[in-house]
Write a structure and sequence with these properties.
Strand content: 15-25%
CATH architecture: 3-Layer(aba) Sandwich
Shape: globular
Number of strands: 13
CATH topology: Rossmann fold
Structural class: alpha/beta
Helix content: 40-55%
CATH class: Alpha Beta
Number of helices: 11
Oligomer: single chain
Length: 332
């Protein structure tokens, strides 16, 4: 298959593109290489895909600009779309809200229009566990109400789900939305806790521990995330009028993709300390605006439908990330 992957220079996008190429698919990767975090890391990810030759084509473009998107895909065969590109980050949305409207709202609409016009077989897109907001009922289920987001980022992701539902209803476009839970692993993002903690621990600097450590997260290793994305891609929802995960009777499913284990932040830091061989200096701070105290994924829907079963614990995944981090930065 010829698969369009947006956010191909991003953390999840890189790994998904690589897995597709390794199994023999061809990939058209799009990314605008913005400077939300260090661009060199994004360029290094794309460079790591170069050995796949002509089966991987990368185009630097802004899919929030519909004319630029149309130019980027002109003449390209597209059998399916994996739309992972977005403006990421909860706290960044507090100070740069328009970036989220452009990439996450207009950009998502542009991808829906592309999918409709090309009549692609399946559009898989990234949502987020952030849509659950301050939900105190754990674990989070796809059947839960998600009407009270606590960040603009979360609101844009929920809006994406609603737009997708409309396109599946009106145009019968098969779609699957994936609510990711705290993804980590090699080639991860420098703005996320795993990278921040590792860099500071290795440098002997204090690490910020918010809500005085009273935080729980469903940390999900990148290999498990990719397995879920690929399983979703290969199983488009049928247009059979039956209710699907998330409640739609159109060809549209919503799934949680998590590890289905909510880890105390303090325990994850303990594992990081052991992997780094250095004791962390913990700087306890209040919770930040837009943050939530706990996430925990109910993955029964994707397990029952697609057989998804994550296998990587933090005791395995965290040392893997630390080993990659040391190698990438020449610290091995």
């Amino acid at each position: 298959m010829r698969i369009l992957v947006t956010g191909a220079a991003g953390f999840i996008g890189y790994h998904v593109a690589r897995t597709l190429l390794e199994r023999g698919d061809s990939v058209l990767g799009l990314d605008n290489l913005n400077d939300y975090y260090v661009v060199q890391l994004k360029q290094d990810r794309i460079a790591a895909l170069a050995p796949f030759g002509e089966r991987f084509r990368f185009v630097e473009t802004d899919f929030g600009d519909h004319a630029a998107l149309d130019a980027a895909v002109a003449g390209e065969t597209i059998d399916a779309i994996i739309h992972l590109g977005a403006q990421a980050g909860v706290r960044y949305s507090l100070t740069n809200p328009r970036a989220y409207a452009h990439s996450n709202l207009v950009g998502h609409l542009n991808m829906l229009e592309l999918g409709r016009q090309r009549q692609v077989g399946h559009l898989v897109y990234a949502s987020s566990s952030s849509v659950y907001g301050g939900n105190v009922s754990l674990p989070f289920r796809v059947e839960d109400r998600v009407d009270h987001p606590v960040s603009l980022y979360a609101a844009t992701k929920r809006a994406d789900e609603l737009m997708s539902e409309t396109y599946s209803h009106l145009y019968r476009l098969p779609q699957t939305g994936l609510r990711f839970f705290t993804v980590y692993g090699p080639w991860g993002r420098p703005d996320m806790a795993m990278w921040i903690f590792t860099s500071k621990i290795l440098a002997g600097k204090p690490i910020p521990v918010f809500n005085h450590g009273e935080m729980k997260r469903d940390f999900t290793y990148i290999d498990d995330i990719v397995a879920g994305v690929i399983a979703a891609l290969d199983n488009p929802p049928p247009d059979d009028g039956a209710a699907k995960a998330g409640g739609s009777v159109a060809p549209h499913r919503l799934y949680n993709i998590g590890n289905s284990r909510s880890e105390q932040l303090g325990h994850v830091i303990d594992v990081l300390e052991a992997a780094c061989g250095i004791k962390a200096i913990r700087d306890y701070q209040p919770i930040q605006p837009g943050d939530v105290t706990a996430t925990y994924a109910d993955i029964s829907a994707i397990h029952d439908d697609l057989g998804y079963a994550p296998t990587t614990t933090v005791e395995v995944g965290v040392p893997n990330f630390v080993d990659w981090y040391r190698t990438y930065h020449g610290l091995a």
